[in-house]
Amino acid sequence: MAPAPRVPLADGASIPQLGYGLYKVPAADAARLCLDAIGAGYRHLDTAAFYGNEREVGEAVRASGLPRDELFVTSKVWKDDNGFDSALRAFDASMRRLALERLDLYLIHWPVPSTDRYVDTWRALVRLRDEGRVRSIGVSNFHAHHIERLVDETGETPVVNQVELHPWLPQTALREFDAARGIRTEAWSPLARGRVLGTPLLEALAAKHGRSSAQIVLRWHVQLGNLVIPKASSPQRIRENLDAFGFELDAADLAAIATLETGERTGRDPDDD
């Protein structure tokens, strides 16, 4: 299967639009599943210190036999390590586990406004980028006002904002905010942890297009312009998820999916942390 297309980032780098998400992938399975994903055509692996599988992701990258430039690896600094010096230490620890010479994208995992350290964390990421240790830097679970503060206080804009995003929570205003500033919006929990897939509307669209409900939702993400990182635990589902580029939803399909919006989250609101 052909790899997902790459899309440009505002800093001149590019990122595969669809990647393999490793949240809740056990370390014992992570290297094997990453190699399954790479074999299927994935070129983007999304991990984090909190996921506990960075070491295995690095093993898969090395075992793949692919040139390093062909694989895009993301990791994230966990909220307990927010702060300038602690974020730098956390990055060093992640890189020791990954055992890679450089990282493609490093994100602040959560802003945690109650501790008020995310601006200092951002300054640490800017330093890591400027030192050439990471190619691109961004944020995760940031509302618009968190990003505005980063830019106001540092003059530096993230190139990616990874947030919970699915048909129940399409994040329309945030996507528009990000797009106006050259920020790519990336969807975690793109299938609402699988809970959205039994929706009769999605099942009807799946029948219309001869696809699975998951493929319908992933294609919806692609056509919105989102980056998207579905998790999967079987080779069949891994391959199926990547095949979101072989068909197209029409305007009526997109309008129908828009009616599913409820505002429901499967995770926390970033302001509640």
UniProtKB/TrEMBL annotation:
GO MF terms held by the record:
oxidoreductase activity, acting on the CH-OH group of donors, NAD or NADP as acceptor
Q: Looking at the Swiss-Prot or TrEMBL record, what is one Pfam family this protein matches?
A: Aldo_ket_red
Oxidoreductase among keywords: yes
The stretch of residues making up the signal peptide is none
What InterPro entries does the record tag this protein with?
AKR, Aldo/ket_reductase_CS, NAD(P)_OxRdtase_dom_sf, NADP_OxRdtase_dom
Q: Which UniProt keywords apply?
A: NADP, Oxidoreductase
Coiled coil in keyword set: no
What family, per the record?
Answer: Belongs to the aldo/keto reductase family.
User: What is the name listed in the Swiss-Prot or TrEMBL entry for this protein?
Assistant: Oxidoreductase
